[in-house]
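[09:14] KT: can someone run the structure on this one? pasting the chain below
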Amino acid sequence: MAAAHASAAATLSATVLGPPAWGWHGRTLGHRAEHPVHGACWLRLLSLPAEKAGGKLWDGTEQAATAFPTAVRRPTLHAVHDWSSDGYANRAELTTYVDEPVLAPDPVLRHELHLTDEWFENIRGSLATIAATPTDRTAVRQEWISRAVPQYTGRPAPRITEWTCAHGDFHAANLTTGATILDWEGWGLAPRGYDAALLYAYAQLAPATATRIRHELAWFLDHAAGRAAVLIVCAELLQSASRGDHPDLAEKLRALVYECTRARGHPN
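[09:31] RB: done, structure tokens below
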């Protein structure tokens, strides 16, 4: 992948700077870069066996570039370069470099944040705009919900009737201190409130921040659809925990399952 990234940089006339940034389980490789026209950029490589290339995660960034208005803060896509070699399909994406720190180094928030009212106002606006965006892409499927919620939460699966567009990976490692939203590869239709529920669930190890998120994003969470979204997100993250990801979050997620189902009955 390092060799493929260097090849993409040469093709796109980008000069790579700084250390590498590996994505989830090494599926992507990113570097800061300088471009003679676009200036400071981010060059990201996705590399997959040729038979697995294509689909939602492959073209998510490219499709997001034209699907959402500029009111949604996100990096600008400058160029895409696709090629195949040695049985692998490669996609390189050159975007603007966002010179703002992310809220956390990984999705699970393990320290309290001191976020401004303006930050939450911008996030609420972005979430509302994303939710109102028409799409035929799918981020979460009812078939998965029906199978995973009982298996990982012990609760009946809700039948979703309200589907809206979602970023699909809305957590502290994909959000900056300037309310810019990163990593758009997985966006698509999801249960109403899904993005807010994901941010809230991932913040459970920082209880003061989780409480603030719940309060500031109440419009997305404090209704039956929002409680269903929280239950679904808990199932998703508990499934990940069963595979060895963020095991320290599992106990808090089980408590959240109990909380979101006990007070007002099942969130169906």
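[09:33] KT: thanks! Residues 2-96 form a domain with the Phosphorylase Kinase; domain 1 fold (CATH 3.30.200.20).
[09:34] RB: yep, looked fine to me
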